Prior knowledge:
Layout: H1 3-23, H2 32-52, H3 60-80
Amino acid sequence: xxxxxxxxxxxxxxxxxxxxxxxxxxxxxxxxxxxxxxxxxxxxxxxxxxxxxxxxxxxxxxxxxxxxxxxxxxxxxxxxxxxxxxxxx
Length: 89
């Protein structure tokens, strides 16, 4: 994996983390910095996965894998950490 691939994964992760909060409805219980961190880590894992699968260099397949993993991770993080409400009042 090249340094350009790592920089691309970082940029994709930050963008997906920031945009992921806009896509999901309601007020998220996760801070922006955390969604961006989760997106970045997932995009780096996507880059490593694509590299291990034999995708070399800057390619559409690598970008799709990075973006897909980052989006799924951000959606899971935001969806599962919602604010709990008590039904008893």
